[in-house]
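Action item from last week, closing it out:
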Amino acid sequence: MPFFTHLNQNSDITDITWNNRSRFAPIDKFSENIMRGSSELSIETRELIAAYVSALNECSFCTGAHLAVANQFSVSSNLLDELLENIDNSSLDPVFNPLFHFAYKLTTNPSRMVQSDVDAILAAKWSAQTVEDLICIVSAFNFFNRLLDGHGIKGNEKVYQMAGEQLSQKGYKVPFFIKLIKPLIDRQKKKYFDE
């Protein structure tokens, strides 16, 4: 169970970010930009990277939710398992391998990043902008993993499925008037979980 009374077993990151808009509103714009903005990386690749980083951090909520989003874009759940087992032996196109090696190192040993980590991505014909996109995604999900685990939000299969549906259809945009419609959203979530 989550550690705060305004949260419950069906809570997600929005229950944190919508509870304190003055603190967390910028995160929504940043998330939309890195996960849905213009990039050489497809949406499904970005979602797979998010799930991969989260799995490395053992964040059950973000792993489940972002794998569910990737599934909505036809990414197999087995692919995440393959990447966690051995990036180079996964069924993913090898052009993506340097991206996942970079994500692994930036997540598990960030102070050891060196020029050759970037050069490997550039040698695979990705742009410098893609390296920056990757850095933003990996860094953001390391933060999000800690934000959710710090609040005690673990999620469950139904929460992950709802997140997968919502994020695949609507992205990460949050309307400025969210405080006004949050009670309606909370009622819809309750109905969804009561089904």
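Closing note: The chain has one domain: 13-194.
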